[in-house]
Amino acid sequence: LPDARISQARLYAVLNAIRLQETTYKSAGSVHGCALFQGEHMQIFVEDVGRHNAIDTIAGWMWMNSVAANEDSIFYTTGRLTSEMVMKSAQMGVAVVVSRSGITQMGYDVATRLGLCTIGRAANKHFLCYTAAERLQLDPSLALSGVRKVEPT
Question: Which runs of consecutive H residues, i.e. helices, occur in the chain?
Answer without folding.
Answer: 8-20, 24-27, 51-64, 83-92, 105-114
